[in-house]
Amino acid sequence: MRPIRIALTKGRLEKDTVAVLEKLGYDCEELHNKGRRLILHIPGANMEVVLAKAADVITYVEHGVCDMGVVGKDTIMEHGGSFFEVADLGFGRCRFALAVKKGEDFYSGYAEKTIATKYPNVTRLFFAEKSMDIRVIKIEGSVELAPLLGLSDGIVDIVETGTTLKENGLEIQEEVAPISARLIVNIASMKMRKKELEPIISQIQSAVTEAP
Amino acid sequence: MIKNRLITPEGTRDLLFEDCIARRKVESAIKEVLIPRGFAEVITPALEFYDVFCGEHDGIPQEEMYKLTDQKGRLLAVKPDLTMPIARLAATRLKDHPLPLRLYYNQNAYRITPALSGRSDEVDQIGIELIGSGTRRADLEVIVTAIEAMSQATSQEFRLELGHSGIFGTLVEALELNEIQTEEIRSLIESKNYPALVDRLERMPNQQAAHALGQLPALFGGEEVLDTLSQLIQLPKIEEIVVYLRSILSDLEKLGLLGQVTLDLGIVNRNDYYTGIVFQGYLEGAGDVVLNGGRYDRLLSHYGADLPAIGFAINVDAVARMARSQMQFQLLPDVLVYAYPGYEVKALQEIDKLIRTGFRAEFCVCETSDEAKAYAIKKGVPNIYLVKDDILEVRV
To answer: Does B159 sit within 8 Å of A191, measured CB to CB?
Structure first.
């Protein structure tokens, strides 16, 4: 049987996850000297690490070619999919927020409102729950520009410290949802490889709850 | 639209040769389990009125249905589910038939799946419905049939997980949750989202029930999860279900089937479709559920017949995809039979003879023997018969 495969979101979440794995005693040498390789071994454990972009982590786990994955709640909310979300890893903390130009009230008046965002699904769902019709415009880069240029009335985006917002004359009107890294597991793997996966999952769970 | 002339719509595909053989083999292996057990086939139309599929609680989400209209402008759906049309059929044309009804089907179901997800919109399914009996015997029979069908369909490792929709239902009742809260918690349990679930349940008044609900996603495995559940909460209804599941497991053990069966008390299907025992099948290598089943005692009342029922459906495509790697295929003929001009009739007679003795023989449509040899080499046919007054056998 193939080794347990865990997909990590490249970048910061990858580093934080590797730190957790090392704390648990896994040998992550290859992950520090990976070069351009995308599949990496953990010697001594029947485990492989795959590095991928956030949304692809979900795709690989959903299709069962990876058994587990580490991905941000932001990506889970935007892409959805069917998998088990078994642990909040506590790192990669930030939030989705609705931001507007300083001093403005997004909800005033009855005119149709426009939101610029990289996360159209999160945005639609948020306003659908408020029974509000919203025009959503998808932006790929710095969404802060859109309200400044008059394209939108506000933005829905990930906010960490709020510095970018402040420097561009925007402020948070409302929090949409908190975000952090999650451990996800393929549905069939959880059942077919329970004996191998369960100890890993509970180790990771306890490692992250111990952390301050 | 000329630009779409050469491709198939997203979510659909052409099946070629080995794929077809694998699909048909899986289908017939399963049918050989169902038919001798008294299940009779029904075929319902590919198009049904949209109304068949929209119920207040257990309908199919409308964005998942392919819809069109009939000549009178009434809304139709390309069948997204095979059980609902059968429930309609059982409640109407079969309403005076002796009960229980043992029906099986093997048809395609169509669902709109998310774009670019690599999923199929068209899925070949085989399943049974045992309608008109709400007994433990019926549950046991259907579960045993599901296991037998899967083990005949594939040599791959297979697992059936049992659960019971009454566990979730009872706990939710004890907590007096409204519909929106129930759905929220149900979806958290379904996705085994422990962190959010625990967070959500912390504020609930009935702490024992809330705690038990919070543990549900972790309660999968062997019979020991029933002990855990009994320790977590003492409610007469839950105890009844525990005793019930134990008795099913004990019978499966006597049948020697326990090796393929585990429990998942966190199986909580969307909506109110299932009302009792529920089960899901997993196959090694397939990333998703390949078999879905359970008791649905309220569905038929939507169609005017208040009958209990239980059934399951197997995703034939997913099983065939896994089974294919274990199969051997013989697609080439053993012999290519070429007739020199004027000997076509003799060649056709020879083919008939060869086929009756168990060979695969292809009649060669080439005009000359050289063309015939070239074709045999290109295709990889091992032997050629050159038919004249006598027959010359040539190894290619």
So the answer is: yes
